[in-house]
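Subject: Interface between my chains keeps coming out wrong

I've been trying for a while to get a sensible model of this assembly. When I model each chain on its own everything looks fine, but I need the whole thing in one frame so I can look at the contacts. Pasting all components below, labels as-is. Any help appreciated, I'm running out of ideas.
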Amino acid sequence: METYLNTPIKEVISKFPKVGEILEEYEIGCVPCTVGSCLLKDIIEIHNLSEEDEQEVLVRVAKVIYPDRNIKIPKIERKAKTRSKEIRYSPPMKKLVDEHVLIQRWIALIPQVLEHLDVESPEDLKIISEGADFIRSYADKFHHAKEEDILFKYFDENLDVLKTMLEDHTKGRGHVKALIEAVEKKDKKGIVEHLNAYRELLTEHIKKEDEILYPWMDRNLSVKEVGELFSKFNDVDEISGNGVTERCRAFVIKVEEKVQTPKKEVRP
Amino acid sequence: MREFQGCPGSRTVDFRENEVQAEAPAAKVQSQLRQWPIQLHLVSPAAPYYQGADVLLTADCVAYALGNYHNDYLKGKSLAIACPKLDEGQNIYVEKIKSWLEDAKINTLTVLIMQVPCCMGLVQLAKQALESSKRKVPLKAVVVGLQGQILSEDWI
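Reply #2:
Try treating it as a single job with all components included. I did that and got this:
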């Protein structure tokens, strides 16, 4: 069925004239068209039929094309629905949202990492140190720097919404500094306190950015500014991003694998 | 309003009963066109006005439907127009759009189309060029209704 949904309507109707008659019943008048280059799926989508009518017309078309088979009817993507339910970011904002995903993968692992933390284990302390490096290198120097050095410059930095975000960044840096000091002292309480605080802070911070800040910024950026941001973010990615991203992604994958594998021995 | 059914791209629709006697604007609307030529077969991607520009690729019918086309969309941008339904040589269009991306190093590409299904072909040409290009830029699609209303405006 997918094949025919992606076929120009003239080809479909000339092969299966009955399809043209069915479309006419739904006021989709492709039969007299002399060009007929529109794809069947675009025709269905753009006419914005009710869900029931859409399913009905697709079932009837499928029965004409495949009279002897039971065909699974695919869902046609509808612009109206995606607009109301999904946030559609501009390409530079989408880059930032995608970077959040890797950060979220690390902070989702923190409770399990802390649950089994043994400060006498060099392996466990190494994970915490590498986690701090992830935060400093990827979340802060790479991702937050894009925001602070580039994105926020397009707005009035005295705006409360930006001050709040900058304050979050500062608090996060404070937690990471304290975390590294706690690792050096093998201070389990300090590690747990600051890594948990960072997790809570970043969880809320990312939610605020994804759901409020970035959509608001998108509404206020001009097309020209979106293009400039995209180009500047690409420059950062090329200069410093690839090595950092690969290293940090490898760290997250390593920890994900580790927490999914139960410890073989429990230390007293 | 409908006189007969048919392809939305070519069926007869009469809007006269919706006609509004709007007040005349205080001053004549200034053209925002910054270049010539504008038809996609005639333009050269090497033209100075495309270098680093925000480019508007407009389906032929849009400027007639969209009342404030010049001020709301054309202002500050470089232009090309095309019809994805009737124009020949659309492979040349893809190559020209690709050349905007790679050679003219344009900043953004905005495609303005009508709501009729055949117009979506212009967005597809832009996407095809973008996918085959080594250099990427933000691509936006704006869909205009038959009576000039903006139906959607989305980054792709």
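Reply #3:
Confirming on my end. Chain A has two domains: 2-81, 87-260.
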